[in-house]
Amino acid sequence: MALPLGATIPTGSHSIEDMGELLIHRRVPRILVVDDNPDMVELMSELLKSRGYDVVSVRDADQAEAEVRHHAPDLILSDVVMPGRSGYELCHQLKDDPSTRLIPFLLITGLSDREDKVKGIEAGADDFLNKPIFPSELFARVKSLLKLKEFTDELETAESVLCTLGLSVEARDPYTEGHCERLAQRAESLGRHLGLEEDSIVALRRGGYLHDLGKIAVPDEILKKGANLTADEWKIMKQHPVTGENICKPLKSLRLVLPIIRFHHEHSDGSGYPDGLSKGQIPLLPRILQVVDVYDALRTARPYKPALSHEQAALTMHVEAQNGLWDEELVDEFFSLLAKRNVA
After folding, report:
1. For the chain, which end, N or C, has fewer CB atoms within 10 Å of the first or last residue's CB respectively?
2. What are the structural domains of the chain?
3. What are the DSSP calls for 252-267, one per residue?
4. What is the end-to-end Cα distance of the chain in Å, rounded?
5. CA 154 to chain centre
6. What is the dihedral of CA 45, 50, 53, 58, to 10 degrees?
């Protein structure tokens, strides 16, 4: 049966197994309750705190948004009907934002129409809970959504480890210091300049860190040689895009990054590697990263070449684009972007 408002929670209402799960967590899950009804807030807080959760409550969507920005919770439980913005609107806004879209969102409602549930699904809600609240159902849904958040956090950790590995490849060569960060920033900026969707922009930023990850398998004597590679050394070097793709392939969250890793050394005239693709076969995101990668290489001094000025790099890239190496339109857009930012 549903627990009456104001009822107290028996100290023995949860199992030893549940307590054990909470004790082995490295961090107590933080749950944000959004509801303008003080009795409902008190009930929800008591129930959740009885299971050992860290509970924060606010009265409306504006306060909820401020709390999420200040300290992101692991789960949001929100009423639908509130003063100001509704729970639907709050959910839709947070799910549209890449920085908050992975926070599980549970809508609590007394509405039972199918249309109301459809509206919640369209807003991006991860689950629903109908009033009156049954403690067993609340605990089950909270536990399930927190497990989902735990899996998501593990994926983000795995991505962070891979990005760190990408930086470790960069660190093997003192002449490429800061290369990955510059590529990530410039690729992201060019993506925004072109009006790409947020998922593509995130992929470009990740690609800046991961594009040369496969060089982790290239020996130092080849990696640092830079120029005048023998045929056998060049064969090894040309495999690094494939190696990098294979390392990242198990993570489905990096699916948009995989083409960047594999194809960023392809040329529009078909002379690149590892697959010898031509312009019409090379996806847009690799072509974007390729442009900023070439610019950074030209502007960086190496043992076998001096750094070019901005003007020299621009002239070189425009000539090479006209000769079929790079995407000519993207080269024009890139230098248009730099001109707007007074880069010289």
Report:
1. N
2. 16-152 (3.40.50.2300), 172-340 (1.10.3210.10)
3. GGGTTTHHHHHHTT--
4. 71
5. 13
6. 10
* More reliable by pLDDT, 104 or 3: 104
- So what's the pLDDT on residue 295? 97
Residues annotated as part of the active site: 215
Residue pair 168/212 in contact (Cβ under 8 Å)? The answer is no
250 or 10: which leads in pLDDT? 250
Distance CA 139, CA 137 (A): 5
CA–CA distance, 42 with 6 (Å, rounded to integer) = 7
pLDDT tens-digit series, residues 241-275: 999 999 989 888 889 999 999 999 999 999 999 99
| Amino acid present at 253 | S
**According to DSSP H, which parts of the chain are helical?**
16-24, 38-50, 61-70, 87-96, 114-123, 135-171, 179-193, 198-210, 220-223, 231-237, 240-248, 258-263, 284-298, 310-322, 328-340
Tens digit of each residue's pLDDT (9 = 90 or more) over 110-138: 766 677 778 888 889 999 888 888 999 99
According to DSSP, residue 134 is labeled: P
User: In the prediction, which pLDDT does 228 show?
Assistant: 82
Q: Is the peptide bond before 259 cis (omega within 30 degrees of 0)?
A: no
Is the Cβ–Cβ distance between 135 and 46 less than 8 Å? no
pLDDT band, very low/low/confident/very high, at 190 (cuts 50, 70, 90): very high
pTM metric for this prediction:
0.65
Q: Which residue has the tokens 């490429």?
A: 176
What pLDDT does residue 19 have?
40
Place of tokens 């000519």: 328
